Amino acid sequence: MFIQTQQALGPYQKADPLTKVEELQIKFLRLIHRIGLTPENLVVSQVLYRLQLASLIRAGESDVKRPVLKVNTARGIATELESTGSPNLDLSLRILVLGKTGVGKSSTINSIFEQPMVATNAFDPSTDRIHEVVGTIKGIQVTVIDTPGLSASYGNASHNRRLMLSIKRFIRKSPPDVVLYFERLDAINRGYSDQPLLKLINDVFGSSIWFNTILVMTHASSHPPEGSDGYSVAYDAFVHQCTTTVRNYIRQTVSNAQFETPVILVENHPMCRTNNKGEKVLPNGQVWLSQFLLLCAATKVLADANVLLKFQESFQLIPKNSRLPSLPHLLSSILRPRSLPNGKSFGDQDDVYELLDNDNDEDDYDQLPPIRILTRTQFKTLSKAQRNAYLDELDYRETLYLKKQWKEELRRQRERMLHQDDTYVRNDNYENSDSQEVSEVSDMAIPLSFESDNPAYRYRSLLGNDQWLVRPVLDPQGWDHDVAFDGINLESSLDIRKNFQASVVGQMRKDKEDFNIQSECTARYSDPRHHSLLAEVDIQTAAKDLVCTVHGDAKFCNFKCNTTGGGISVTKYGNMYFVGAKLEDSINIGRRAKLTLNAGQIRGCGQVASGGSIEATLRGKDYPIRDDKLTLATTILSYDKEMVLGGSIQTDFRAGRTVKMSVNANLNSRRLGQISIKTSTSEHVEIALIAIFSLVNALIQRKGTEASIDEKKESTSIDL
Ligand SMILES: Nc1nc2c(ncn2[C@@H]2O[C@H](COP(=O)(O)OP(=O)(O)O)[C@@H](O)[C@H]2O)c(=O)[nH]1
Ligand SMILES: [Mg+2]
């Protein structure tokens, strides 16, 4: 039977991970046989069940459908191999021990090898360096990495950190299969708290260390303490209470309430009770060495199977979303048009120059007949229709005048750029240079939804010169109001040399525990033929990690009305990397219409998100003096086997002479959407506002009833 199976498995051996998992299962069963346990043992059956389940899931997913090796068949093969004794059980275990000094790490190593391998000491730390102890237990090769004890006193955190870092270096090349964290059973009492030590382990090795960690309790034959009734607590209840205490600390450390660390009880005392086979037993009759080997082997086998079947990525100790940045979010950040802080979107300036070149109705304003400006009393004598006609005329003239001004300014600017080569003033001579050389720092753009609670928008420049704009950031819930603000916001943008601009935006905030940074550095080069290059580095803190993104964009004006571009970005989040790329194209149709298409993909940590959008913009006839426009966009996003389609409409227009409206609405195929209406006015228009409020109210109510039926979610924001 064995030979048959070998032949059957033979051809798959290299290629098929499922076959490797089946081999692992057979090896595990052979070891169980040697330890003297049966597959009916609770832990053994759990391990076999998990291996079966994992294989079935992967076999079901793969294209080559094939039956998974049944437990009974595997058991038969294992028994047969054990009875013939060949081939050798090719299984190895690599174990790292961690724990405070004197808890019995070295003694346990001697106990499991059943001979003195390392020195132990009751009073002084006797393990002074990290070293490997190699031997065989039940025919499998076991390597234990013995480490000097950690210090229990809180003042010694730096010693502990140094020690852990050197352990981390030691295991870098070949990581352990199992980590044993040691405690003394008799030392766990109500006052026990090793949380700082556990937290340090978590910080140095990362939370993934807990997947392979087993809690080892030495001195397991200790007498349970007396209960409140004067009698000793039952042994099992005592053990349960102690393990629960330590497990809870580990749960708090990894911030996961479900996490259950396996426990092994150990007794190293030479006088430990033995059974009739001479095996050391605990007060409850358990042979602790077999339990020890079983749990170590189970941990290794399950971890190996996860790696082989690529399951390890789907396990996250801390809920997935808080650890992984959202891929759709990263994708939309790569797809968004890049902008410099002066509000000009990357490439926009070129459009504007183009408009200037194409604009022939030069002297519109100068050709207008003169108009008589009325005094207030004269104005009052006019009829309503006359008043309107008069105001319209003024408005028209204002537009033309602004247009003329704008063109002149643009021409001057272009002139300057062309002559800058010779007269270019270096950075350090800025005092002497014409202050016009420095691009102006604009005010912070008003966010889409204006939150009056967000102080970044409430406080304006504290101190500023031509190059730097500095603003305080005040958090109403902040920790220290004596200093009046919790952070600082810095912005600067300057022309470094001809056609080369750079900008920095940064915000730093500090509260009692966290220090947050958010910064964006951008450099942009654009050549006279409207080709442009942009490089950007974003750094920000997210929880405890630093998220760093490097982004590069290039745009080529290949035809007169067509611009093609592409970009790549790399994001580092903790120790994960995400790489993204995008392609985009924008076509100007006439002077006022623009069509933009883009598509991009981002991947990392085995996940992929792809998406794209088509956007059509129609600008008002007075662009860019008045920025009336209508934008229609559709987007598509595919992530995690799901496809989401979205559509949005945005329009900015003037409703009458004094009121500007901005309406933004979007909805996606998940039935999530948003409507936002903003108005700004230079006159009191309470009546109009009341109308809008009632309109919005009516909308909310209607949508509210729809929502209950359709699970539709809408949010409405009104910004004044
Ligand atoms: N009674 C008892 N004593 C133990 C046990 N484990 C270790 N010891 C004793 O505790 C002392 C310190 O042990 P050692 O292995 O050197 O601790 P390490 O610093 O963690 O390596 C030694 O004197 C051991 O004999 C145990 O399970 N039961
Ligand atoms: Mg030791």
TrEMBL record:
InterPro entries xref list: G_AIG1, GIMA/IAN/Toc, P-loop_NTPase, TOC159_MAD, Toc86_159
Superkingdom of this protein's organism: Eukaryota
Any one Gene Ontology cellular component term annotated for this protein: chloroplast outer membrane
Cofactor(s) the protein requires to work: Mg(2+)
Predominant place of localization: plastid
NCBIfam families assigned: 3a0901s04IAP86
Family that this chain belongs to: Belongs to the TRAFAC class TrmE-Era-EngA-EngB-Septin-like GTPase superfamily. AIG1/Toc34/Toc159-like paraseptin GTPase family. TOC159 subfamily.
Protein name per its UniProtKB record: AIG1-type G domain-containing protein
Phylogenetic classification of the source organism: Eukaryota, Viridiplantae, Streptophyta, Embryophyta, Tracheophyta
